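Letters spell out the chain; backbone shape is given numerically. Take this protein:
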Amino acid sequence: MQKAAVVGSGLIGAYLALKLKEKGLDVFLYDQKKEEELGFKPCSTLVSERIRQFIAFPENCIENIIEGCKIHFPKKTIELNFNPKHLVLNRDKLLQSQLSLLKEKGINLFLGQRINDIPWQYDYVFGCDGPASVIRRKLGLKEPKMKIGAQVFVEKPDHSSFTDVFPVRSGFFWKIPRYNFTEYGFLASSNIKASFFAFLKEQGVGLKDIALSLVPCSGIKMIFSKNKQVALCGDAMGLTKPWSGGGIIWSLYAADILLNNFPNFGKYEKEAERFFKPKIIEGTIANNMVYFLGFNSPFFLPDKVNYDNDFPNFTKSIVDLIKKK
């Protein structure tokens, strides 16, 4: 029986481990975090209902259901109505549910163990170990570009069904209603912590400090291993949506492309590039255009838009907007 090592036990690593097990491999899952630490990651886990196509989880993981997003430019607010709707998931409960499934399926778990090198003793190695991937670094691959992110949870109940986004020149602030809590955060190309504190003060939240994290944003230059024994997926390959920084659904799609082409990692690279590159290019252009118009000519932007936040048809939206004007 062939053996596979999956490094990183987040959602993507757990998903790959389970699917590789179904393919008949003996799977060994490694993570430097201990079992009780698995949910500790600066990630909103705000994800579309498409996640149910990939991952089964109990209903108690859902903290809120989100119908859309309000983008607040200085002189205009745009309302995006999500189709499909989004789920606010409790990351700790979600990962614990996946951990139970991994144990049930007989995955060999090695938690609380730091991987300092590629475990070449296995037939295949899958790097799902996040933005600062050890596997990527040990392969000598180029590091992805990074943005700076942060989040904070406030004991402020919010039962609303819309998230709020507040664009700034280098990124955006966000507010997510988690029913019994409210989440605030930012994602930007530079450190805007001081501006974020000022924003929180306006929201009635007093905060003195916050931990920062790196979010990959490699753009069209996704990072792939050229080694026939090793593959990268998720944050380790730098795959995120250019307009929001979210990566869960896209990474799950990438994982399926990887699994469908396994063990041919070269075909995985070609198919992933064919699938994601047009979406990244189009999304980057559209995002820059919306920011430019939002800050300079907001009257060109619509008041409401029906919107697929995973795979938006930006070209159609722009054509429809021109027709309306």
Q: What stands out?
A: The chain has a mean pLDDT of 92. The two ends are 63 Å apart (CA to CA). The longest strand covers residues 76-89. Residues 176 and 248 are 17 Å apart (CA to CA).
